Amino acid sequence: MFGNLFVEDEEASSSTSSKGRVLKGPEEPPPPRGRSNLCGIKNQGGTCYLNSLLQTLLFTPEFREKLFSLGSEELGCLEDKDSPGAKESLICIKHVRLIPLQLQRLFVRLLLLDQHSASTAELTDSFGWNTTEGTNQHDVQELNRILFSALEHSLVGTTGSSFINSLYHGTIVNSIVCKECGNVSQRQEDFLDLTACVCGVSSLEEALWNMFVEEELFEGNNLYRCAECNKLVTAAKSAKMRKLPPFMTMSLLRFSFDFAKCERYKETGRYSFPLNINLRAFCEQAEGDDSDYSYELFSVIIHKGGCYGGHYHVYIKDIDQLGCWEPPEEESKPKAKKKTSEEKACESKPQEEDPLSILTAIISQEPSKTVLVDQLGQKLMNNFGFSWNKKFKKQCGAIGKFLQSHGEVFMLVSNGSKVTLKANSTEPIVPEQTNDAQGEGDQDTEGSRWFDLNDSTVTSIRERDIEKQFQGKESAYMLFYRKTQLRRPPQALNNPQYKVPPQLIKLAQEENLKLQLSREEFEATNNTIELHLHLAPLYKLENGALQPVCKESESTSLSFDRRKTVGDLRLAIYQMQDPWEGDMALTVAKSLPAGLHLYNTLTDDAVSLYSAGVTNNTDLFVWNGTEVCGSPVLTGAEWEPVLLTVVRPSLDHDMDEPKDQDPTKGEAPGLRKEARGFAGGSTLGEVKQALGEPEESLLCQEARGSVEPGAGEGGGASGWRVFPPDDMLRTLKELSLKDGDAVLVLEPQSFDSSVFTLDGDVVTVTTPSDCRWLQVEHQPNIRHGQREEEPSKVKVLATGNTLLLEVKQRAMERIQELEQRPLEGAEYCLRHVDSAGKLLPPVCEELSVREAGVRLMTTLTLSLGRAPEASQLFLSFSVGVAPSAGLERDIIVEKTCTVRECLKQMLDEVGLEGSGWHLRQLDWCEEVGEALMDEDTPLSDLKISNGETLIIAEGQLPPKGFLKLFVWLLVSDSRPSVDNGFMEDSVRAVNGAEDVPVCGCEHARLRAVGQVEISDEATLDELKTQVLTLPALSDLCVPTSAFLRLWQLEERRLARLLRGPQTMLRKLKLTSETNVCIQQLFKEEDLGAKDVLLKVKVAVPGEARYYPSEELLWDASKDPSARSLRSCVAAHYGLSPDSLLLAKFQPEKHAWEEISSWNQQMSKKKKKKRTESLLGAPFQLRDGDTIGIKNLLIDGNRDFCTSEDRLGQQRLREQVELGKGDQADGFCSTEQKKKQAKSRKPEVGLSISVGEFR
């Protein structure tokens, strides 16, 4: 009835994945007990009420021992119930008393099992509860009575059939005294617990006084009929306790009903109760010692919340001293006499200078005794006012390494993401107390050992903390008293095995052994990392980076325990690479676009791999530490290689014999490009030397944003800036040159050509539109690189507006004159020839040179055949397999022709019949690729471009289970950043399609690059690999698929980031016809399940606009709260998190939703009761969301809206006003639906199923 309000308060103990740390291992075993040495109970979702009552019964020694006194001869054995013949033997099942047996086992686990918390699943199964019952919250008073009744029924016919009555049963006698004759009428009532009124009463004593001392008079209209007088008389009614039980249970009636409002409510006023109470005044017989009537409080069940929802936990006094009580951390420094500032400085200085004691104190004051490693530095700042980096990093190293090096005190759990204290660790150092304060603390420790058992969490509290539960929404609900006469024997103290049956002790010992083995196995697996070894003999130094000698050479994988030392790793590699000559150095390496680069060398053999910063999937280079193949290698971040695109002129000195140009490449005629890597610490002068250029050569950098439309297609020019002489002494890093940047190398004679002009420090590269000629060559038998004789070549004057038909006619006339013979054949066409000598598709003669995309100053071939018209496509095709030299056929079809019609024409061309054929495209490897699934779709809609080759494949279309995905490329209008970027200049849009803008994404466009066909059983990594086979992406240079990011598109919006390289497409819920977008990165990326990729942009102070947005990767796996996001943003920009204000942009509303501060998500006790997740409502952060940032230190305006946002909001308001009348009814119905949705579920009664044992 309470839904999900009753959730576990403790930190989630499940294993949290930590990106890049360790290999995936077995499930994490339960952690050991905390410093209290007491075991908590797991919450099944809403069983906090059950957990509180069970802990109270466990810490009632007399109840526990009575239960343990029942053996298997009376209760039966659980093994008999689960035996193969149990179903046939009903007698066997009848005598197995499940509830007491499971309660015994639970108590043994709570007492003896070394685990942080125990499960009640087996016990609730014995209750007959289903899985949903564990999520329903019930009243603990109701459970107390039902559980006792179930135990009594379960123990019928055993020696324990009356032990509930012997411990909790009492009697009350109600008396009515006639005022006229003095006749006394009595009626006796039994009770297991007393209900005390709270409404209108200030204390438990007052409530008991009203119940057992105050008399109720029957007078006036409310008279009593006396049996002796036989008439209505005045009488007095009273009640007294006749028999007191050893244990007195008081239920406080905090829930009442307001008849005026017709609703329930909770009494939250002050209601006190004593730690010790004497009930003599409330008893019928007052003789005897005070000890017969004296009770002491030993358990308080507390309810937090209202009458429709809340949470239970319990304060318990440890009677048998089974736990390890210690003063609560927040009160471990009691008030003492005032001291001088010098004395205080002397006391605080050792505390603040000792990082071990500081971290121990921070961890020990957490309720769960565990802290996220990423949050430890922030807690240090909050508690002590200084950071780890400034105070201790210089002498102690990083905080993670410090924790690892002090394994005797700290223990890393949950894949190293959390830290806790070991059970035998030293206590945190606290300042000395005065004698008065010391005595007070000792007295509190000896006189009461109270603990707060809150589901899985067990913490020490002081006796005076009980007074805090007198009032408020979190207040006492049930009180448990025990007679002071009940004394525990000395052998029961500090002895959890006291009176526990031997067979149950043996069972606990076996389970403890299994837990120990599983923890050792988990630790071993959890600390195993995968290393990639690169051996020096297989590499060479080239272009400032290490390159493999053979493309087939791969790194050697090695699984190793990160707790072992560097020396152990070195010895293992020695054994693997026996023999190894000379010294061996192990250096951390990283794969960059330019090649493999080396960073820090592991020199200290005594340091563990964890302390050395070696993580999972780390690349290690094994070498002699000085050179590779005789070449010295520069290491470190400052020498990171940069992959530059070196552009050189490729001018023809003999204009009569111009070089062939390949129009399929991204290079402009007259230029050739080459990728070269250089060390980032090299100067520009050293780069010129490495390129072998003379001193007088010029190096130029491309002028950003200066490329004019139409460059390279009939008009325009590109600009380059010459590096000044001073830049020759600056390094590539200082010049901010990044991977992919282009550098133009020009010799002085290059300016003799009309292509290059120098104006000051700007070099202009003129496109071929100013060179007005085309060369046409003719060779009758040229095809697929077969040449029989030198072709005839002629030059034809042409401009961008000249029709290609005119060019062909002029060329044919001059060739006939040159060869002095007529041309063979009736029809001729103009075609390009690639560098391999293969004929490319004919150009459309109806178009001009510019319209057809033909570059001037290039060569065309005059070939036999017909040229396609503007509405037609020239296609090549073959039957069965990819075409080899001379075997493919050519066909011209209309662009509006469907796939089915095109297939029929091709079949008619080759003389084939039948319906068992379908068409496939060729991939970039010239192999048979994806099938054309939609046979009724026009070729133009499928983006079949001119010159493509199709394969007539035998058989029907591929079966179901294959996905056809449309692939787009994300193109950025801005320059790439260091983290990621785009190299889309060499990527052509399919069929000349124009780029489309991305919704909600500034400075980005989508470019169609093709489609792929792939099985839904394929992995995401395989999809990336197949996408790279698209012809439009053939010039895209990607080392591995990890350098690609894949998005799912919805209405031109980046809707979802696809992650998980080995995740199947079916599990990613990709369907056919889905649009996916590929984005190229400059570094590898492997996103975790809860890594969120956000776009962040900082507001310009004092202005309603923002700086350009940046990408931010936020790891939300450990802490998805606003605090974690703010810390991540602050670390990214180097700002203080307290000064930042964040907001999420809602593009559909043109509004910003401010993300509340984490200070508002902390309770008064500074205990995080429930983690606020930004991944859920109301923010629901997803990949691609935009986060606005304001620095309140320099910008006091908290409004995130820009002028564009306000215009968008105004348009939305106008649209609402237009349709206001039509939407009114719909709005009302929506409100009604919301009210109906808020109605509470009907309450479910609590019951426990018990078998018949009579």
From TrEMBL:
Any one GO molecular-function label of the UniProt entry: cysteine-type deubiquitinase activity
A cellular-component GO term for this protein: cytosol
Region (Disordered): 1-36, 328-352, 431-450, 651-679, 1222-1254
SUPFAM superfamilies, alphabetized: Cysteine proteinases
Basic and acidic residues bias spans: 330-352, 651-676
InterPro entries: Papain-like_cys_pep_sf (IPR038765), Peptidase_C19 (IPR050164), Peptidase_C19_UCH (IPR001394), UBL_USP40 (IPR057763), USP (IPR028889), USP_CS (IPR018200)
Single GO BP term: protein deubiquitination
Signal peptide: none
Domain USP: 39-484
Record protein name field: USP domain-containing protein
